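worker-3 :: picked DUF5679 domain-containing protein
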Amino acid sequence: MAIEAYCMKCKAKKIMKDPVESTTKNGKPITKGKCPDCGTTICRIGSTK
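worker-3 :: tokens ->
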């Protein structure tokens, strides 16, 4: 599944590497992964279907 998120370090949208679904402290769904270029953690808020 290709999930796209904005990388703050690269200043561009990238396709997440190793996405993992999780929740925030207040219970909202979030997807976390790594930027394929720089390795920074990138997040996309909302559930992935």
